[in-house]
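Collaborator request, handled under Task 6.
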Amino acid sequence: MKEKFERLVRMARGRNVYIQTHDYPDPDALASAFGLQQLLKVYGIDAPICYFGTVEKVNIRMMMDVFELESLSEKEMDKIDLDSVVINVDVQKNNSNLTDMRGEEMVCFDHHPWVTDVAYDIVFHKIVGACATIIAELYEELGVAIPRDVATALLYGIKMDTRNLCSGVTDDDLEMFAHLHKYADGDLIMRLDNNSLQLSDLRAYGAAIQNIAVFGRMGFVHIPFDCPDGLIASVSNFILSLDAVEISVVYADRGKGYKFSVRSELSHVNAGQLINLALRDVGNGGGHATMAGGLLFGERKHLLTGDPHSAIRKRFTETLDKLMAH
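Structure tokens returned to the collaborator:
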């Protein structure tokens, strides 16, 4: 990675550089963007953080405050020079959760399965539990001392994206978690952990409790209103915690379509593959073996025959049967 990072620095010098996360950044995306931003500063490169969408979860807003993270507004992003260098972090180009922005997407840091057909100039890609692990490894490989706030953010990013080191975690995640733990602020990690819900979030959890339908080992929940991606993912984790559920499919209204979050605790059922196949021809989706997300497009909702919720359940259960058969 050292050689690739040195290439990145050479490419970036003398140009405007921006770090773009997915539209509704989670703790891992923000931590990774922050860690990379601070690392580039060591080499004399300023790179503002950008994302479309909003930050609505309490712990993510708290991250923004305590780490003094600032992002460009959409008006500011509209003024970015077309020849600026854009670095995608925790996401790949053409993902449904990444709004196209001005500039050239030349670099990518990501830990999801590689699915884009975009030819980035430089790619830092590794299948690990958290993108923050890749950024932490980069600090170590470059021999750059990791500041306390960066170590804390990256540690929290790993903790959250691996569900407390219980989901999708790899040996590399564990190694970096132990390494960062020596430098991080444990009290701040606890504060972030204890401030993850706000009162309005309870509407989504209430809808989940009222609307859950369990078919075999799959738990389905429709949240009948729009809510942030991170909250949908949190409800999906909540449903997966039920002893009768091994795969959770949670979806909320999004425009005329639906936004999905899928979780799997079955080692032989890949959540990313499941949602990708289930939403084929009506939307798109993908992600990790244990967690994934996707969209059902409003303009294709008419392809769901009969009751849309019954049709969605049928698509996922039939897709699961096919995956299990193989």
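The cover message to the collaborator said: "The chain has a mean pLDDT of 92. Residues 308-325 form the longest helix (18 residues). Please let us know whether this matches your experimental observations."
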